[in-house]
């Protein structure tokens, strides 16, 4: 039982919950808030710089060769998810209220994960090279595409926070894309070092997320977040995230079979097309939305992230157990 709980709630998840509790009890104010804001901005720039240095030129080139799979994964990530978010509006808006529903919409327009999508694809026996290419490209394309989708789906909120869609793209490019490109251009010099220190990149990932979450929730708590989000809303939001994930998992599995992909590619489509990145989404929320809006924008992403890890861990193991039977047959 303890081992199963450790599978579902890893150290990072527990630390994330502790950070939310710390921000709720001891939110950063005044000069402290300014300090954490600057520290968070620097950590995010470092995060995307290292991601740029990690992505090889070969991975970008190889991504072109399996275009049907990548096109389907991109479609699920940037078209299917937003359509589901809009379709569920009559159900979710009355249940969650506007701030949390907008957070769900923001979740729907984010790029997919990289590390966990690849890890689950590998565990399940999927097409790992395709997963690497698809996840990396999704993360890169999302830096530009997500602000456009935010401008389309959350027009008033995006305008209030970033001035306009073009300004939002400019802010994303300056704070996220520029460090990413700089890191990739320097890969010939530092790429080997980055490849040898993958654990360091993971710590930068997690540390950046924790800093943004603390800063965001501090600002939202100061503005009265927990006075406006009730325990009942949190419970309904959890159910909404679970429903969204179930719909996407079912549709990606059906589309993979319906379009004639092999088993390994179907697995890649399921795990690549159903996941949303907190490593990219949290920094983007910081750039796109004002401080008091960050808490409601991040709550759906945090819940969805944990649910997707729990469900996909079980699903990947089921795929892995079925593989020998299908091979033998």
From TrEMBL:
Transmembrane region(s): 7-25, 31-49, 69-88, 100-120, 132-156, 168-186, 207-228, 234-255, 297-316
Organism: Zobellella taiwanensis
One Pfam family recorded for the sequence: SBF_like
Signal peptide (UniProt feature, chain positions): none
One cellular-component annotation, GO: plasma membrane
InterPro entries per record: Na+/solute_symporter_sf, Put_Na-Bile_cotransptr
Protein name as annotated: Bile acid:sodium symporter
Keyword Hydrolase applies: no
Key words of the record: Membrane, Transmembrane, Transmembrane helix
Transmembrane helix listed as a keyword: yes
